[in-house]
Amino acid sequence: MTNAVVVGSGPNGLTAAIALAEHGIDVRILESRPTIGGGARSSENTIPGLIHDDCSAFHPTGAGSPVMQSMGLDEFGLEWCWPEIDLAHPLDHGRAGILWRDVDRTAQRLGPDGPSWRRLFGALGRDFDDLAEDIFRPIVHIPAHPLKLARFGARSLLPASLFVRRWKTPEARALFGGVAAHAFNPLTTPLSSSVGLLLTAAAHAYGWPVAKGGTGAITQAMAKKLTTLGGTIETGVTVRDIAELDNPDIVMLDTAPDAAIRILGDRLPAHVRHAYSRFRYGPAAFKVDFAIEGDVPWTNELVRRAGTVHVAGEFAEVADAEAKIARHVMPAQPFVLIGQQYLADPSRSVGDINPLWAYAHVPHGYAGDATEAIIAQVERFAPGFRNRIRHTFVRSTADLEAYNANYVGGDISAGRNDALQILMRPRIAPNPYATGVPGVFLCSSASPPGGGVHGMCGANAALAALG
């Protein structure tokens, strides 16, 4: 029987393992940490019983992922939960951009920008499944839906700073800008609209759900599916050299390119080593888990019902903060992402103490403490928030890299999302998953289509391995 070893148990490693096992291959996953999941884990970081997501938290592309939909993970315990409102972006003086999964309801609240929002995202939401077939694949492929992909691509090419000119209201501009900022890249650069378009389309197609019981429930369900297929998982095993693996037929590396260089050593062809060594990492996250008493006292009542909240002010403020972190300057008012997952999934709370998930965008490798900046940004739109805090748990950029070695310098995107690396990552090649070492493939978020708990990097890499 053909055998395979997968190094790393993040969603992509697990997806690759499942895909190989479904083809009758004997699969073994090796994970260096005591628990599986990579960026998709949950922990009781503040008080016993209070469930915090360690990294990834909201899953529009998980619910909409072609491969995750095909796995039947609900049979293994995965349950998606939706908040009443998917996304909110508070502004000063009690205003806010509000996104419901229902595009018409979202448009109604955007006033004069409503018709434009409805036309654009109504169509993209309806087309999301078709677009996902192509967008979640490497750039070099025969499109399944060429016209839809071409229209999406033409819009994506624009910098977000130009794209938002179609809207006049601060609410619509900020709502789109906050989603575009998930790319951790200046909003004035080409293709900086792409992530905003994709994630907003996913929001109107699938919403921004959370996993019941925490994000770790996703990888636990995947692990259960793998074991039913005969696959095995070993934790606490660090692979430092491919020679330790007893010469399997297939090796899948759910690792960053720099780790692939270390593991493959002299076996790696010189041109691939050179490309991997030039792989660019982007700005970082600084994460704080809060245990709060009651709810966040947002000035805008609708924000109190939103599962995800972008805290950054108007579009110009978002753009300024993202430009600064790209220049390695820490902004006084960073882009802050807040997760109120407990609104959709009350099982995460303990009595009247609720878990609040938060991170700020900070420069790559930022060595400072952004906790106060995060609190101040929330306090700006929710006066009295500080008084609700009962416990905090902080992960700096260094802590994030220690938690997950793929997060080099605290880069949770596993690679800068500039124009070249959005299109061609981790290197320019017709098969971006091949390492040049026979039978060895890269399947992490450093490969196409990039970051997110969607498993498509692993699925695509497994297809490459299967030939």
TrEMBL record:
Coiled coil: none annotated. It holds the Pfam family NAD_binding_8. InterPro entries: FAD/NAD-bd_sf (IPR036188). PANTHER family: DEHYDROGENASE-RELATED, PHYTOENE DEHYDROGENASE. This is Phytoene dehydrogenase-like protein.
